[in-house]
Amino acid sequence: MTVEVRGLAKRFGRTTVLDNVDLRVGPGVTGLLGPNGAGKTTLLRCLATTLAPDAGEISAFGLDPARHEQRTALRRRLGYLPQDPGFYPHFTVFELLDYVAILKELTDRSRRHREIRRVLAEVELADRARTKVRKLSGGMKQRLALAQTLIADPDLLVLDEPTVGLDPEQRMRFRALASRLGESRTVLLSTHQTEDVAALCERVIVLTAGRVVFDGTPEELAGVAAGRVWISDTPPAASTLFWRTADGRYRTLGECPPSGETVAPAIEDGYLLLLGATSANAGEGAA
Ligand SMILES: Nc1ncnc2c1ncn2[C@@H]1O[C@H](COP(=O)(O)OP(=O)(O)OP(=O)(O)O)[C@@H](O)[C@H]1O
């Protein structure tokens, strides 16, 4: 396993944000799902060595980020896409990547510039190399953030909501890139997009209130809702989650509606059931 986490705990003030998290993540693409505030970013920050946990152990490539020298060695093998990458707005795209590449110890100028051209091509920003960062669109900034993550070809990629702000074409390109990387590297990404998990991840971990509540394949997550997704001509009781589909029928998650027929569940259904969300939005579906 690339990453092993045991008994990880983190509090901010009185709030327990990570509560005894155990994880093992190996090569391939693993998705981290969880509602807002579940602790995903906090967990990824601990793995990316930007935040020290209060308790527990992390080992990545056998290295312990709590130890200074091992932390440095780990950072050499790590690419981290933070949720809010702070960019210097007056840098050009190329200057910014050059700066990051220097921090990543690419000291040879021509090798470094080759590497920058490589990552710019990966995220389709080659034609923006001379553009100031402040002039990029939101989606382009996100791709620039991804580009800096790829510099020096890290073995472990920790990506916090990498598809936020990407248009559909760029999301597809990201999936292609991430799955290619996942063939030989370890990619751990957080997302709210269950479609990305379905399309891309071999494994999915669900975190809620700082605890791992599911760890399995996307199919197994969908399977949580097996026999609990229905299509019917009449709306169900208002206490279940349902909506009217384009063909005028009702899709219900949870209790069987009158004369309902079961349909195959999606990952999102399993995820929502796991979070106990079937009555949280009761009746909204009829709107
Ligand atoms: N530096 C901090 N100081 C205080 N509280 C924090 C800090 N960072 C995170 N938190 C709190 O920790 C909890 C978990 O936050 P975190 O950002 O890890 O969640 P998340 O699962 O990534 O959420 P989202 O999906 O909204 O990005 C939240 O209650 C948040 O307010």
UniProtKB/TrEMBL annotation:
Keywords, in A-Z order: ATP-binding, Nucleotide-binding, Transport
Taxonomic source organism: Sphaerimonospora thailandensis
GO molecular-function terms, A-Z: ATP binding; ATP hydrolysis activity
Pfam families assigned: ABC_tran
Name assigned to this protein: ABC transporter ATP-binding protein
Keyword Membrane: no
Source domain of life: Bacteria
Transmembrane segments: none
Domain ABC transporter positions: 3-234
Family: Belongs to the ABC transporter superfamily.
Signal sequence range: none
